[in-house]
């Protein structure tokens, strides 16, 4: 079988996660640039709340890659190419304080984007179906 040099990227997005971007970045920095299999192992045993969200996102991105290519993800050495965490909207609440005052409480949220890419070349007869690619992109937005 002949192989080409084409790499296929798949994304997964998490929007409105009820956690501050600063806390989520601690977990995101751990998996950036790692192979997906190693990243899943690390995230599974990391004792951070953000790690639970990242584990689901990694599995979702791998599933998106499999649907996009029609191949099994294990054979092609998927790598976490990029992961970034953006600040989301804040929920503003008030807490009663002494002497009739109120203290503001800001409940932070974040948006996380994850991109995985294969390191092993795909077969030359491989063609990404445009309809499947459009469906995946529409579901991620």
UniProtKB/TrEMBL annotation:
Domain of life, source organism: Bacteria
**Which Pfam families does UniProt cross-reference here?**
Ribosomal_L22
Q: Which GO terms describe its biological process?
A: translation
Signal peptide, first to last residue: none
- The answer on whether this UniProt entry bears the keyword Cytoplasm reads no
Give start-end ranges for the coiled-coil region(s).
none
Which keywords appear in this protein's UniProt record, sorted alphabetically?
Ribonucleoprotein, Ribosomal protein, RNA-binding, rRNA-binding
Annotated Gene Ontology cellular component terms: cytosolic large ribosomal subunit
GO molecular function terms attached to this record: rRNA binding; structural constituent of ribosome
For whether the record's keyword set contains Transcription regulation, the answer is no
CDD domains referenced in this protein's UniProt entry, alphabetically: Ribosomal_L22
Could you tell me what this protein does? The globular domain of the protein is located near the polypeptide exit tunnel on the outside of the subunit, while an extended beta-hairpin is found that lines the wall of the exit tunnel in the center of the 70S ribosome. This protein binds specifically to 23S rRNA; its binding is stimulated by other ribosomal proteins, e.g., L4, L17, and L20. It is important during the early stages of 50S assembly. It makes multiple contacts with different domains of the 23S rRNA in the assembled 50S subunit and ribosome.
Oligomeric state and partners?
Part of the 50S ribosomal subunit.
- PANTHER family in alphabetical order: CHLOROPLAST 50S RIBOSOMAL PROTEIN L22-RELATED (PTHR13501), LARGE RIBOSOMAL SUBUNIT PROTEIN UL22M (PTHR13501:SF8)
The UniProt similarity line reads: Belongs to the universal ribosomal protein uL22 family.
Q: What is this protein called?
A: Large ribosomal subunit protein uL22
What organism is the protein native to?
Saprospira grandis DSM 2844
Q: What is the lineage of its organism?
A: Bacteria, Pseudomonadati, Bacteroidota, Saprospiria, Saprospirales
């Amino acid at each position: 079988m002949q192989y080409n040099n084409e790499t296929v990227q798949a994304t997964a997005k998490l929007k409105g996660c009820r956690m501050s971007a600063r806390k989520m970045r601690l977990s995101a920095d751990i998996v950036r640039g790692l192979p997906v299999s190693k990243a899943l192992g690390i995230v599974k045993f990391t004792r951070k709340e953000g790690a639970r969200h990242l584990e689901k996102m990694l599995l979702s991105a791998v599933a998106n890659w499999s649907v996009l290519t029609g191949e099994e993800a294990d054979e092609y050495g998927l790598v976490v190419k990029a992961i970034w965490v953006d600040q989301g909207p804040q929920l503003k609440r008030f807490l009663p304080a002494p002497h009739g005052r109120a203290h503001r409480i800001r409940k932070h949220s974040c948006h996380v984007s994850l991109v995985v890419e294969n390191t092993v070349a795909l077969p030359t007869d491989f063609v990404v179906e445009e309809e499947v690619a459009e469906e995946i992109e529409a579901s991620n937005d």
